[in-house]
Amino acid sequence: MTDHIILSKPLYDLEVGDQIRFTDPESETHSSRWWRVAATDHRYVIAWRQVPFQPQGTHEYTVIDQIERDHAYNDVGPGVVRSSLNTLGGGYDMSQPDWAGTMLSELHDGTWELSNRRLVQVHGVEVKAS
Known about the structure:
The chain is mainly beta.
């Protein structure tokens, strides 16, 4: 098994194609699974990965909101958070070629917002060298 070189990179410097995983520097733990950045801008980072134990090509996404929240919600925060979109029922259609770019636009124009029920604190992010 190959060891990964981990880069230190601020969220605003992430680029499409970067591979990231979430860390907790206080407990010195990290997720074993990597996400691939699909879209990013000054506020959001949208990343996807293969869903575990599902057929190849079944993906899930997460959205990091880089604007630090100044209050807690559902015992998450304050600070940088990630979540999925606040959809009911069907989820978000990731089958379109530019689904992440469309999602980014829809987050900014108010079509979608992050789900407060699914918030997760972002303590740290590692980037795999490409």
